[in-house]
User: What shape does this take?
Amino acid sequence: MKPSDFTNFPMGSIEQKCESEVVAQNIMIILTRNGNKFRKLGWREYERERLNDNDFYDGEKPFFNTVVSHCTSANKAKLFSKAWNQKSKK
Assistant: This one.
């Protein structure tokens, strides 16, 4: 599986916060655009990509710090969100 398999909204995440789910989805979209391979995305790259999307605000950083480690592999992504886990079973 690749990040592109996890670009849907991760509703029902372990964080139970919409902001965290949005940032996790953003990370997967960025990973998809930039090679479609799992890796740990850095804050500066995230910030740059989101600025390019014209949809960034500084308040994303604490949520990024919370969720970025959940977006480093398919197995971790499946554990992060029921929606991502269900999608991977299809």
